[in-house]
Amino acid sequence: MNAPQKITFERASTTGPTPPDLAITVRDERFNRDDTPRRWWAGEPFGTAWHNALSATFPRGEAFFIEAVKAHREGADPKLDAEIRAFVKQEINHTREHIAFNKLAENAGYDIKAIDKRVEELLALTKDRPAIANLAVTMALEHYTAMMAHEFLANPQHFEDADPEVRAMWRWHAVEEIEHKGVAFDTWNHATRGWSKWQRWKVRSLVMLSVTGRFFKNRWIDSMGLLAQDGITGWKARWGLLKYLVVSPGVLRRIFPAWVAYFKPGFHPWDHDDRELIGLYEGEFQDALLPAE
User: Fold this and answer.
1) Quick count: other Cβ atoms within 10 Å of Cβ 287?
2) Which one, of 36, 37, 43, 54, lies nearest residue 245 by Cα?
3) With contact defined as beta carbons under 8 Å apart, do 32 and 102 qualify?
């Protein structure tokens, strides 16, 4: 592992309320190079299926995020330009580690090729789309990763009984998603600086609604497919996954207020400064946090 590279920005207020003392640390970590239990999420299939389905989308998805943000860096002030470079470095590392994790899932007997193929086909549809549209989609999906990252770090119940190596990987990823949660949004503000506030709000809100529908539809299909590979189908599969997502630990129920906040006029991801979770991750994580309900 290379030494963490910390990049601190003294930010002007031209693109949003990103904390002026924000530090983005590129942690070049390695995980999941050995075997992992098939049902790594507490020996239970539903959490395992949901996170395996998410991870299967990350290599292509994060490459898309990188290109969408980089496409709008021209003319950015030096601070935003540096943030974009740090964002890219973090996302490249995330891609590498999820490729490794996905290989372990395949080694455990899960076929995730159909998920990867669906992502490839969906991304192919973006090739002829205006670059600003891809940035709007990236901004919405980055809000999803930030919401889930906050929830995973704030409530240890989500991973407390998971395989330790896999838990470490998801926590590491979550920390860096929190750190760079404003980069795509600030890049959007830079790229649309000639737009009216109304136009900005309208486009990002409509895109979030579209992204939300596709995100949950596709992740549900993907998770159902993985559960079927575990011999779990029909109502048992649907109820088990729904219970995991909205009851206990209930990640979707818990992130709903943060999702609604995205539609507030004048919203910015750093309206909620949750960097204390990063400090807890780097310190006495388990002893410092309140458990989930």
Assistant:
1) 8
2) 54
3) no
Are 26 and 5 spatial neighbours (Cβ–Cβ below 8 Å)?
yes
Please give the torsion angle defined by the CA atoms of residues 111, 114, 117 and 123, in that order, rounded to the nearest 10 degrees: -120
Is there a domain that residue 253 lies in? Answer: yes
Q: What is the pLDDT of residue 37?
A: 74
According to DSSP, the residues that pair with 26 across neighbouring strands are 5
The CATH number of whichever domain residue 26 belongs to comes to 1.10.620
At 68, the amino acid letter reads A
Give the count of beta carbons closer than 10 Å to the beta carbon of residue 178: 22
Please name the helix (run of DSSP H) or strand (run of DSSP E) that holds residue 156, with its range, or none.
Answer: none
Could you tell me if residue 293 is inside a domain? Answer: no
Express each pLDDT in 121-134 by its tens digit: 989 988 889 999 99
Q: Into how many domains does the chain fold?
A: 1
SS3 for 142?
helix
**pTM (2 d.p.):** 0.89
177-211 residue pLDDT tens? 999 999 999 999 999 999 999 999 999 999 999 99
Averaged pLDDT, 31-58: 86
